[in-house]
Task: structure prediction
Amino acid sequence: MDFVRMRCKRETATSGRVVPAMAAVMLAALALGGCAFGGNDEEKALSAQVAASDQVFPVNYRTELLAFLRTYLNDPRGLQHAGIAVPVQREVSGRTRYVVCVRYSERESGGYKPARVRAVLYAGGRLDRLVEESGELCNNVALSPFPELEKLTR
Result:
């Protein structure tokens, strides 16, 4: 067997006009792709207004939150100091979302962890995600008792 003839020649893949043509196509893609991510402040403000108007109030926010926490928490039984706020619109990562702030204290061996406030984000009227570190999302919100959360079971 002649292995020398079976080898691919390196020159065939890189010779001729193939590499310059590929480079030209890549440069064109980069140049055109840059146009898609621009936009002035007026366009961004209009986009934010449209996104805000598209947001649907989460009517069943309490029920959805209870169902989510039942699966999210390792042991949802025996939560204490539960509180919840009504949904408010906040800007999250440049988009307007409904945010529900919820507070509870989880059981741990020998007692309870300190109560913490978490932010629950809703998009399109449905629960999107829970943010453990609520930060500024839950500043100045009034929490009311949430007894359904304290009665949660597996």
